[in-house]
Amino acid sequence: MTSLGARLRAVPGWQVTLGMALLALGFLIAAQLRSEGPRVRYTSQERGPLVETVLELQRNQETLKDRILGLNERIAGILQDQEGSAALVKQLNGELEAARLAAGLVAVEGPGIILRLEDSGTPTPPGGNDDDYRVGGLDLRIVVDELWLAGAEAIAVNGERVIGSTAILDIGGSILVNSAYLAPPYEVTALGPADLYGQLSGSVGFVEFVRARSEAFGIKLSFAEPPVVVVPAYAGSVTLRYGRPAPDASATP
Amino acid sequence: MHRRSSQLSIAAVALVLGLLAVVQLRSQSGGSALDARSAQELTVLVANLNARNDQLRTEVARLEQELSSLLADQSRGQTSVGQLRSDLARVRSWSGLDPVVGSGIRITISGPIAANGIADLLNELRNTGAEAIAIADVRVVAGTIVGGEAGAVSVDDTALGDPFEVSAVGRPETLTGSLTRVGGIVAQLGATFPGAVVTVTPLDRLVLPATVRDLRPAHGTPSL
After folding, report:
1. Does the beta-carbon distance from A239 to B94 stay under 8 Å?
2. Chain B: residue whose CA lies nearest to A194
3. If we measure between CA atoms, which residue out of B67, B92, B64, B166 comes closest to residue B124?
4. Would the pLDDT of B94 be above 90?
5. What kind and span of H or E run contains A188?
6. How far is CA A97 from CA A19, A91, A232, B87, B216, in A?
7. Three-state SS sequence of B51-79
8. How confident is the model at residue B154, as a pLDDT?
9. Weakest mean pLDDT among A158-162, B51-55, B147-151
């Protein structure tokens, strides 16, 4: 028996190692074959494409989920922006309304007076000038200017709003205001502070006008002070064809 | 035993061992989940995945439509903002609230001229289509009044020097032609105020300032 022990001890170390390695190898080969086992049980022709399909569908699903996340993010971003731009639109609308009001593009109502001018009832004497006995463009311009001077804030002549570009001209027997033909009687509506008529009648220029036109030639002049006057909006073109906003335009209240 | 061949055989065994170990380890994880399913189970899985993916696709389509509609709104909104800005600039510069630039004429007046002469000139400029007018840096708006006797004229409380300038934006040829025609306003002013000299210069570019007045009616409210 000692010969067996002696024979065992006599086995070189490397042979033991090799033996153990080969043992492990055997186990692994067996395990590999076993794990491959179940696969062998089903039809390999069906399963191959099915597995491929499943894997592809799973990939598609990931892509679709990513797309949904991305779309949700973009939509949230735009909804946030929209809130901001709605506020901006509101602000700009407010500024536009304020500008239109200041520009005479909006009808206004409030305290004021109405002056009425009519042609003279006196017939023109021989040698006299017919124009003297009729209300002319200059008469209206003087009345309008005197009203501005007295503190009027908005003026209209027979419904034509007087603005910065309003010309008042004599054309034949009519008066042209904002290129609209007007006929007598002429009603000049002025909106302004409570003392508007007081200021007007106290003005040297107006007193002189009354003397020169009404007293001298009989031009009829009357006035009314209703509780509320309405000065209509300017109804004309708001276009600049030869001008444009200056590049360094600053906001003036 | 030969040293060389024994080393080679050990190396070969180690290599195969290593490979198998790796394969075994890999097959234990991941793919073995599918590998463990039958064709029947896989078919059911495919059907489920297809149904789920269809749902996801419907959701994607819905979201894409919502996004495209929001983008259209956004671009419309930007158009609204742009349109509003341009309307605002137009109303403000037309009405005198903002400065305006363009072609036109510059009228230089020297010598004694009374306020009613300047008022007549103003009326004539408006009649010939001046789009914006300024008298010596005072923008002419509704309510701008010229006053004073010859030699002491003022516009809106600003004294006018000698000479002073009246600027108007419009078509230079039309404005010049109309003012300087025979019997036109320049001729009339020359007759009424013999000491005054009125010259009209057409210009390609002039800038008129904004008004310094507050044009908002203090006693009126918008009438509906």
Report:
1. yes
2. B219
3. B166
4. yes
5. strand A186-191
6. 99, 10, 16, 11, 11
7. HHHHHHHHHHHHHHHHHHHHHHHHHHHHH
8. 95
9. B147-151
